[in-house]
Design a protein that fits this description.
- This protein has a five-stranded mixed beta sheet.
- The mean pLDDT is 89.
- 22% of the residues lie in helices and 36% in strands.
- The protein is an alpha+beta fold and 87 residues long.
- The radius of gyration is 13 Å and the shape is globular.
- It has a single domain, classed as S16 Ribosomal Protein, Chain: A, CATH 3.30.1320.
Length: 87
């Protein structure tokens, strides 16, 4: 199964993450299928903290890729996926 999750980059106390489509059996920093965007949580400007290729993210979601909890929250905040309705 393909997951949308982050790989950690950057230096000590200044993490930068890359959003990837990756096989769920791969290690966190393993080889991705495709790189889809970046997330810099230490950037003060929230409008540029998270950036991604929306069309490719939507494609991966349409073919069954599952986002991690953190990725799902950021995609909801960016308006790419809708919040799940609670019954």
């Amino acid at each position: 199964m393909v997951k949308l999750r982050f790989k950690r980059f950057g230096r000590t106390h200044h993490p930068v993450y890359r959003l990837n489509a990756i096989d769920q059996r791969s290690p966190r920093d393993g080889r991705p299928i495709e790189e889809l965007g970046t997330y810099d949580p230490t950037n003060k400007d929230e409008s540029i903290q998270f950036s991604c290729k929306e069309d490719r993210v939507k494609y991966w979601l349409s073919v069954g890729a599952q986002p991690s909890e953190t990725v799902a929250a950021l995609l909801k905040k960016a308006g790419i996926i809708e919040a799940a309705k609670k019954a």
